[in-house]
Amino acid sequence: MTTLSIDAERLLGRLRILGQIGRDGNGKLARLAGSDADKAGRDALASWLRDTGLEVAIDRIGNIFGIWQDEANAEKSPVLLGSHIDTVIDAGIYDGCYGVIAGLEAIATLKAAGYVPARPIAVAAFTNEEGVRYAPDMMGSLVYAGGLSVEEALATIGTDGTVLGAELERIGYAGSLEPGFLKPHTYIELHIEQGPVLEREGVPIGAVENLQGISWQRITIDGDANHAGTTPMSMRRDAGHAAARVVTFLQDRARNANAPTVATVGCMSFEPNAINVIPSRAIFTVDLRDPDEGRLQAEEAALATYLNELAAAEKVKISVERLARFEPVTFDRNIVRLVEDAARERELASKRMTSGAGHDAQMIARIAPSAMIFVPSIGGISHNPRERTADADLVAGTNILLDVVTRLAAQ
Ligand code: HGY
Ligand code: MN
Ligand code: MN
């Protein structure tokens, strides 16, 4: 079979168009799950799915599917491609969107070439992968894989006090299909690496064989508001200072660990948040990750012990709420090998690697053999408007996705 190639202009054009949808007055991109910006992105995707002649299906958690099937193969379970089109705050244009647009591009290329797959092929855009407005992240694919009930997910209260289910209704993406209605034969997700490895090693294709564990917690520290000028240091119950000590504790542990453990405090707020008032309350989030489940548990335990000691030392009250907890995932060896074979046949170097970021693939791996393909991130930057991948790498990655899908759909 001649080696097909995708339509680079169509791929890059759609990525750019989607990348302009959901920018605020300052030009910053934020398509948070269930928002008007999310709706606008979803509407654009749905129109491209229909333009490609796919059946558009939406489930109760708002996951969008574009399905290519015919009478001959409709009985078989589909090869599923996909990722997400919701973003973080002040985001780049490739995280998630690339995998969805490239999945659609692979299907469009196969259709245009008159290819007749032995099984259906579908592309998904999973709801709320980022988890910025509603925790946990990878929520739509987690519900799809049966890891969270759809009722519980729809009842999730956001950081802005809204309810996810009501927001999905409001934007017209509260579908009627039960999540999991399409049982995938296999799942393959193309994504930017979001890290420095591929660029540093000059390798254009990552064959992702595993993904690290993730622990998200929200910590609330309660002390006493008091006068910044009159209160002696020895009499303070300073929630802000206690919070700062946790940040330093986490940084020191992760930096000094002889391990790939990473720790991040991404959100923090003080009450009453006044320049001359000792903070009575500090609320902040902790994101801990490690490819090894045992080490991740050890880091969680070390933090819990530290918080107990800190509460006594600083005379504050500390409460912890778990927001997300996902164990490390190993992807399907056969599909990883298909990625490497496809790269070799296109004379592209590839490298086996671990994903530092969470992805929908880690959830779909619970219900079907799954794997991922990475392409380099320039400067290893992501979750940042400077996120960028060279066009040639975007096209190469999509051609590898095309090859892998063709092989999977022939099985
Ligand atoms: O948090 C993550 O790794 C993903 O971007 N949701
Ligand atoms: Mn992503
Ligand atoms: Mn992301």
From TrEMBL:
Keyword Nucleotide-binding in record: no
Cited InterPro entries: Amidase_Cbmase, Bact_exopeptidase_dim_dom, Peptidase_M20, Peptidase_M20_dimer
Cofactors: Zn(2+)
Stored PANTHER family: ALLANTOATE AMIDOHYDROLASE, ALLANTOATE DEIMINASE-RELATED
Keyword tags: Hydrolase, Metal-binding, Zinc
Cofactor note: Binds 2 Zn(2+) ions per subunit.
Binding site for Zn(2+) 2: 95, 130, 383
Family named by the database record: Belongs to the peptidase M20 family.
Keyword Metal-binding: yes
Domain Peptidase M20 dimerisation, chain residue ranges per copy: 212-312
Amino acids binding Zn(2+) 1: 84, 95, 191
Record protein name field: Zn-dependent hydrolase
Gene Ontology molecular function: any one: metal ion binding
